[in-house]
Amino acid sequence: MMIRTFGKKIVGRCCAKVSNRRSCSDYQRSVRSSSSYSFSKTNQNDDNKRTKTQVYCKIAVCLAAAGATGFYCWKKFLSNSNHVTSLEKLAEDLPFEAGARRPDLPNYKYDEVAEHTSEETGIWVIFKEGVYDITKFIKQHPGGDEKISMAIGGSVEPFWDLYSIHLNKHVFEILESLRIGNVHPEEEMQVFKSGDHYAHEPKRHPALKVNSQKPFNAETPLQILVESFYTPNELFFVRNHLPVPKKSKLEDDFQITGIGLDSSISLTMSELKMKYKPHEITTSVMCAGNRRSAMHETKPVKGLQWSAGAVSTAKWKGIKLSDLLKDLGITEDSKACHIIFQGADTDIESKPYEVSIPLEIALDPNREVLLAFEMNGKEIPLDHGYPIRVIVPGVIGARQVKWLKKIIVSEKESDSLWQQKDYKTFNPSLNIETCDTGKAMAVLEFPVQSAICQPANGSVLKLENKKSLEVKGYALSGAGKKILRVDVSVDGGQSWMEADLYTETKTQMNREWAWTLWKLDVPLSDDMLRKQIDITCKATDSAHNTQPESDLGIWNARGLLENKWPKISVKFE
Amino acid sequence: MMIRTFGKKIVGRCCAKVSNRRSCSDYQRSVRSSSSYSFSKTNQNDDNKRTKTQVYCKIAVCLAAAGATGFYCWKKFLSNSNHVTSLEKLAEDLPFEAGARRPDLPNYKYDEVAEHTSEETGIWVIFKEGVYDITKFIKQHPGGDEKISMAIGGSVEPFWDLYSIHLNKHVFEILESLRIGNVHPEEEMQVFKSGDHYAHEPKRHPALKVNSQKPFNAETPLQILVESFYTPNELFFVRNHLPVPKKSKLEDDFQITGIGLDSSISLTMSELKMKYKPHEITTSVMCAGNRRSAMHETKPVKGLQWSAGAVSTAKWKGIKLSDLLKDLGITEDSKACHIIFQGADTDIESKPYEVSIPLEIALDPNREVLLAFEMNGKEIPLDHGYPIRVIVPGVIGARQVKWLKKIIVSEKESDSLWQQKDYKTFNPSLNIETCDTGKAMAVLEFPVQSAICQPANGSVLKLENKKSLEVKGYALSGAGKKILRVDVSVDGGQSWMEADLYTETKTQMNREWAWTLWKLDVPLSDDMLRKQIDITCKATDSAHNTQPESDLGIWNARGLLENKWPKISVKFE
């Protein structure tokens, strides 16, 4: 019954939010159709009478039924934002605290848990402070073994943020029955030996798809990327340019200096929080190299071979940079033209990561540039810029400096290589040797983009009398442009079907900072089932910009801003 | 010498303006290289001693020399903005007033002049109040007969705005020597009989390429479109949805009413001009149907068959709508969401032309929405919205209401067909019958666009030992996005050459309302000279949006916002 009520509540919220997009009746229908199944009420006292297998079967049946109605997937889109409240509420209701430390059990370090990933070694996972052996359970997991496998050797928490159906008393009961120990209380957040320039890297979730270890760069796996409107912090893609600074040396302050300021001023976030009204925005952060591997296939390009997972979405809380600058007397009439940001991360010569943005953007309250201190309601994790990072909605990730240490009000752009060399695009006929970086503009806002996340490219799917194939993905555009439409084609663009769109934000004109999720049930003909199906999509934003068919006009030597029509192929067996 | 100084002066201005775009040395080089020729100083007293032919030859030689250095074309880009001042200054220096009424000569009506367009009838043109017979001169015109032919039967003034080299004492001397009469002082600005709903249409310049007479819709011919950064008012494309209102009934006032206002308020522009600081902006106005004929070729679409000339650029002066709304207490917290504009033009049932824009845009001072009363330094011509029109930079022309009569502060969009039906795009697989206009968003901002204006598509060019072919066009993007690059290809997009860009505006981030003109000298190989050359181009804007290769992803039933790569073909003989 809880799920039922929960579902209805969310439908109401969703309706308000999809106005101006499309009728919400589709959403209501899909959720309502699922409300016919229920979870039987159990009594804690009966627990011991029930075998684990019985419980698994019960959940499996429930979930299978839910999956069949299509509810499971859409519910996940809808429910995540309520996760924190629900989890807390649930904890109060439970007679035991799932994941709490148990003095009667042994302690294990993260590395030990990470070694337990097979039937031979045992398959272990972490939930809060608890360590669990799920070797026998995994095959009976109602959601199949694909996604649970991504959590093994690490924490299940970020996955339960995505699949909030787990936030259920019975699931906690099963989990605690698999308990074997606790996370070691002295566990250190280090993966590399000290002395290494990369000695202070935090522990990362094993589900992240690593592109480079030093510096650490990893994307959110596509299978889970659009399972939730908000990406759990632990699964948020990571793009670091340099080693992560040592956490204990990071302080709650930064310097501001430059044109219009008599001297360098030191400001703490605590002071700023008291002085200025905190501001919260939901924005997607995307690396300019997202989907580079697709451009590389056309013609090789330099840079990390990102798939389409170098983008994630979070709720960020901070103070508006425009409030601070205004207060310090920096106006549009200033001689300054740029705001330079420096991070605490440094290269081997102790030079910090540094980039800049135009003053107009920094000063415009509607552009909502934040000095952020919270990510999805929590302290910003070390990998994402603890304790303060810059959030510049609508522009590429590279300008959104982590571990903020210094702001410089300047007449000129930053002269760092990240501003002057790395993030620039060129005429498709120029290569790294012939391109003129001095002439090209530093990339700031990005073009309209989309990706197909599910099914995975190259999947061989089970036939199972399917009448349609669910295709899911995301779309977003730079500079706050809203996604008007995502069209999907299975005949190379000769004909198009319009996808259902989903967002959790309600923004004003040109302030749609977050992605739009989309879904389409592609009807399957008998003919299609016999051969390979090539699926493509394209998004249109509110300025009616759309994606190019191929790389012919957009290929560039650095492989930036790949936004040609994404394509996947699947087969049935 | 005058030209020389003039050229230098302009180069200085140009340099300041192309900063952040590209080195201005190219521009300097091209202009400086032309400074070696001079105009001989003539004395008015010597006039009668000189035959007309001698004068024509002298100018022809000068201009041929100029043309050969490439100066002629670029100078035109650079000089136009100084036209008004130069013309006035020149008039003071002359011993006679060119184009002034001469009581000794007969009067002719516009229609009579318009009938003189061939050798048989005589070829007549108008300059100010003078009528001239240029039958014998036309073959000796130094600029060739193509462009002068566009002026016959009408006024040469807008062309001289484009080709300001004519603003020369000697040209005026030649012109006056061809004088045959005056424009009739009682000339009426009517082309249709009274009683007709279209009885009050103004006289239009014969050079405009008419797409529809009732309502009047005409584009600027591509041959002259990019000859000047500012389009002369007489040659500015015209897009009327209804008959033009009677000029004598149009008054200097409009009503404002709706949410947040106690009662309807009547305001005169004279009052507003006194109360608010006048504001001037340079913006291109583009019809959403621009280039529709190219989309129609792919698959038929409904609507006027515009080529690429449904766009023009002017300097507009008016008061900021944001100033007025703010003063009336309309804020973002208002219940209102839209500003509706009504024109004085009405349909057969007396319903006015009406559309709306979102309140956010109307209130944002940086979006610079104007209630305009001046166009290129002159009273707005009747065809362009005299005495007051709305200018909404960065959005399609349809939202920029002419002959403004009423502003309504509203909770909802306008329910007119121009807001709810006509200006909407759909999935390429939908046609007029299957599209759902209720679901689609009214088009507002437009995508990145470009066109090739010279040479004309299908031209057969003279070989003349050419080493390169000059290709010229324009590019622009919606929502104030700047044009970063225009690339040109002669091999279907397999390789690209970067064009030189030119603008006369210096705007802030996301406030580049006007087009960017571009030019490229395409190198010609022997092989290319022997066959048809297919030329294509594409523009990239500051958000790195670019144009799609084909209509595959953008075709829409109403043929709006065609922005696929433009293509032309030329041959040499």
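The longest helix of chain A spans residues 2-18.
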